[in-house]
Amino acid sequence: MKQLNYSKLAKHYDILEGRSEKSNLRVNHLLKKILIKNKCKKILDFSCGTGAQAGFLRDNGFIITAIDKNKEMLKIAKKKHKRVNFHLGDMRTSFFGKYDAVITIFNSISHLSKKEFRTSLRNISKNLKKDGLYLFDIFNINFLKRNPPGKRISIAKQIGNEAYVVFSNYHLNTKTNIYSICEKRFIQKGKEGIKASIENWEQSTYSIEDIKNILADGGFTILEALDSKGKPFNKTKSLMMLIIARKTNSSQDI
Q1: Which of 39, 218, 228, 248 has the most CB within a 10 Å radius?
Q2: Residue 232 CB neighbour total at 10 angstroms
Q3: Which pTM was predicted?
Q4: Distance between CA atoms of residues 102 and 47, nearest Å
Q5: Same-fold call for 6-142+205-252 versus 145-203
């Protein structure tokens, strides 16, 4: 699968690809509610990016270890959230101890092939205590099939003296369930010349049935499936699914 160049994007990630502050707060408060409900205190964020979830959870009393495989994204995260314990690592292979819960938020697993997703699940299980939770979100293939995204202006904003415009073109291969994205980005600082760039990448998408089967094979069972606002997941109406899964197979312990 063609990957997004996070090293190139890191400097402007929060503006060009990250969720809005309002959206982040909504998701973070939802995560907090779920973690408290399930008495999870020690959390491993296996795809922390610039620290949107890790910083919030640390500030709200959780013991958080945050991991990302991109050095440039981690540099930004460390500047933003100085009290968080950040490390370079990979959800497919890295072991950092035993946690009450592992999170991979903002569609992180979509950047993995289905084979890599299964590999990651085995490793995530190793990083979880007995009966630990795995929380993640992912695009819902059934929604995308019924609502083809096509082309649109995805970002048009000005922050200080910097202007940002992004044109996005989305294509869904309904045979492979691979979601292809092409972004044309334009950034202008003050009266300087416009900096233009093009980025192409691919993401995996799943149905709730796909997720149930893959999780079951990896030793997990779904406790709950929600949409991004915390309401019950709807197969045809929810763009995203937020999955709360429990580790059930202790044979993955090390």
Answers
A1: 218
A2: 9
A3: 0.95
A4: 10
A5: no
Contact in structure between 138 and 110 (CB atoms under 8 Å): yes
Domain 6-142+205-252 homologous superfamily, CATH: Vaccinia Virus protein VP39 (3.40.50.150)
pLDDT value of residue 249? 67
Return the CATH architecture of domain 145-203.
Answer: Single Sheet (2.20)
pLDDT digits (tens, 9 = 90+) for 72-104: 999 999 999 999 999 999 999 999 999 999 999
Nearest in space to 244 (alpha carbons), one of 99, 165, 135, 148: 135
Tokens 């707060």 found at: 25
Distance between CA atoms of 178 and 203, rounded to whole angstroms? 6
**Cβ proximity of 144 and 160 under 8 Å:** no
- If we measure between CA atoms, which residue out of 170, 144, 167 comes closest to residue 154? 167
